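Fold this sequence, please.
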Amino acid sequence: MTRKKSKEQAKRFWNRRNARRSILTEKWKESFSSVLPITLIVLVLCFLWVPAPVSAMLGFLLGAVLLVVGMGLFTLGTDLAMTPIGEHVGSAMTRSKKLWVIMLISLLVGMIVTLSEPDLQVLAEQVPGVPNRTLIWAVALGVGLFLVVALLRILLRIPMKWLLLGCYTVVFALAQFVPDAFLAVAFDAGGVTTGPMTVPFILALGVGVSAMRSDANAENDSFGLVALCSVGPILAVMLLGLLFQPDGGNYAASATPPDAADTLALSAMFTRSFPHYMKEVAIALLPIAAFFALFQLLVLHLKRREVSRIIAGLLYTYFGLALFLTGVNVGFMPMGNFLGQALGSLDARWLLVPVGMMIGYCVVSAEPAVHVLSKQVYEMTAGAIPQKALGLSLSIGVSVSVGLSMLRIITGVPILWLLIPGYLVAILMMFFVPPIFTSIAFDSGGVASGPMTATFLLPMAMGACIAVGGDVAADAFGVVAMVAMTPLITIQTLGLVIKYRQKKSKPVAPAPAEDIIE
């Protein structure tokens, strides 16, 4: 009997292992299809128009391989760990029925996951005139406070459009008093801090909290948390700008292409950097793991199999994000800076605009958090919002934003001249679009501006700005803010198209998407 039981356990173990391996293969296929387009664009540019050093090109290709492997592991880890943790914590919070408990835990969770975000450390290093720790804690507090507001919105059923209208009215009113050299990075902060560590957790938290409501719109209201949490960092950095009055644009220089004598020297650059990012990601994941362990002991009491699954997911997330950041920072960032300088040095500087648009179109599909959002949207709407349609809308939005950013570098147009009309259009559209599309659109703005944007598009913009002789602080910074803005318009446009098609078709039987529009 014992032998038969052990055989059954071994069979179940191997079945689970094979299933996980099959899922991982699918994740790698997805990440390969995401990274391939931008890799091909860079190869075409470098082999036909822009001569690149061989070591830089090899470093870029090796970085692309690490991106594919790392993104596959990361997305699998998100499914196994980050999403379940967020859903369990969200459900447990609301079961307490005590508002002060929900608010306190929301504040702590928001601060913990923000302190865990690797991109925040990068941003802090680049901001002049403000101590790193002061900036990091201020941004974390901003995210925590607005996560409280976002969860209360779900529980109290407050319409998303009115909250967003009020928040951005305050943001643009405060922007009139912030130093110009500090303004672009304040808007960049909103996109950078909602990255691959923060987004999966916050999205899942919204699902867990909304599950406690029994009305028809509960699932739709689970979106919008990332949108509101993106406002907190903008306001926090603006307030720091008013308090510290930074007077310079002494931002950290972008990475230069690797200058390796041979392939062994090039591989050594990656192997030396990998332990650094392993340490960085470990520090980032530790607060989340500790918080989950404490919550498991005191509140959740999950079964051993579920806990083992979450631990395995955290390990996948750890190694995947470490590989991803190594590939991006060592291989992709230098190539982005090199391309920007090379294109900006050409007589036909206008080429920066179409090339930037092509790269922007492709780069968003390589953002890890974009895959997390599109999958959750598809599942929560029962397929009413297709992943391909959402991805296409995001790609078009980011393409336009990068094109406008490159145009701004060439012409020196102030960033508010683009942000104010853009947000005004997005806010006006909220009153004509189904509410779920407003929430998803503003979530997408924060999700699209992740590590790929910060470590490829931003260095490219800085390189182009240096080549054309512009002001890096005023002109190059702000590309992340632009990437966070344009999806607000394109995703809501998608909502209008779907709404129009549904009204035109007039189905006899209720379609799944009708619940969304109502």
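Residues 279 and 322 are 8 Å apart (CA to CA). Confidence is low (pLDDT under 50) at residues 508-518.
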